[in-house]
Amino acid sequence: MRFTLLALALVALTVAAPLAQQGPAPKPAISAANSSQFARIDDLVAAAIAAKSAPGAVVLIGRGDQTMFEKSYGFRATVPSQEAMTVDTVFDVASLTKVVATTTAVMTLVEQGRVRLNDPVSAFVPGFERYGKGGI
Predict the structure, then answer these.
(1) How far apart are alpha carbons 7 and 136 in whole angstroms?
(2) How far apart are CA 75 and CA 81, in angstroms?
(3) In angstroms, rounded to a whole number, what is the distance separating the alpha carbons of residues 80 and 67?
(4) Cα 68 from Cα 126, distance rounded (Å)
(5) CA distances from 108 to 1, 9, 46, 102, 125 (A)
(6) Neighbours of 45 (CB within 10 A)
(7) What stretches of 17-93 show up as alpha helix (H) in DSSP?
């Protein structure tokens, strides 16, 4: 179950907001010996696309500097017309980094005891308490 949730989370991250067909040239095809190890990925991504969780995805699995698996699925655009997803589609995940980086940083501070979740923001941002925001 953990693998399924992780795989779907990665699919969700990689389909955040495709920009354009740019990037490095496609990597060499995966050998038949390796492809059987990743056969379940096709089913997981197909299920996510069928559930309308995403119109498409690119899955890349690597170890060190070696690509173990790389494949595109579905569409990177559906309006005004369908455009097939390609392995070199570039994704804009900038909006995700705000949430992921901030949450991780704050939770690290909580673990270190430097911040408590019920501390007011004004304890860390001078002047935040103005205009009735002291309780936040």
Answers:
(1) 36
(2) 10
(3) 33
(4) 50
(5) 27, 22, 36, 10, 18
(6) 26
(7) 32-35, 39-50
Residue identified by tokens 């589609």 is: 89
pLDDT per position as a tens digit, 36-95? 778 899 999 999 999 999 999 999 999 899 999 999 999 999 999 999 999 999 888 778
Q: Please state, in angstroms and as integers, the Cα–Cα distance from residue 13 to each residue in 1, 51, 69, 103, 118, following that order.
A: 18, 16, 17, 16, 30
Q: Whole-angstrom Cα distance, residue 127 to residue 129?
A: 5
Greatest extent of the chain over all pairs of C-alpha atoms, in Å:
64
Element (H, E) at 62: strand 56-63
pTM, to two decimals: 0.50
* Bond into 80 cis (ω within 30): yes
Please list the alpha-helical segments (H only) found in the chain: 2-14, 32-35, 39-50, 94-111
